[in-house]
Amino acid sequence: MEKVIVVEGISDKSRIAPLIAEPVTIICTNGTVSATRLEELLLPYEGLDIIILVDADKSGEQLRKLVKREFPEARHFYVNRNYKEIAATPIRILIDVLIAANVRVNKIVTEG
């Protein structure tokens, strides 16, 4: 099943994209969005494996709540609150989160 990863910003996308070793669509919400905007972003991917990986801050929590309400089938993955932002999370931690989400990661990255 095709996977779709939802992140908040382009820096988050830039941080995780090089780690991924399979075709995955990464969608940036560009911060907090309305229910209407979220539907516009995710409706084309309904029925696919939607993975939510957003910052551990107020904006990220608001987005998670909205996704849970509008797309309850989406799977949520978290990083430790100490890192706050996906873009600031150590690569090793992000790799562990992606593996937990059943996303294949690049072998070169995992060996480093």
Automatic annotation (TrEMBL):
Cross-referenced Gene3D superfamilies: 3.40.1360.10
Name of the protein in its database record: Toprim domain-containing protein
A GO molecular-function descriptor: ribonuclease M5 activity
Coiled-coil segments on the chain, per record: none
Domain Toprim: 2-90
Any GO BP: rRNA processing
